[in-house]
Amino acid sequence: MVPHSPSRSMRITTPRMAVLETVRFGEFLRDQMLLSEEQWLSALAAHWSDGRRRRFGAIVVALGYLPEDIVERAAAEFHDGLDVVEVNAPRPRPTA
Q: pTM surpassing 0.85?
């Protein structure tokens, strides 16, 4: 007896899952055409060579590529309008 093998039309296929790719903020700025490729690469190099490891947006502003208000608006859009909390920010001191 030959085992039954389903025809090609009867095979069950599973749908492919969508894959989410991580997009970093610098790539977002470049993809939104707020930064040129050259500015993005320059800011990226400054970001990785900076010993203090400043945020990418702060470096873009420091290099004069974008004003701070544009970076803030882009960050809000990048984070889908969520309030962004600085993890490294000093905690407020309780008042007595």
A: no
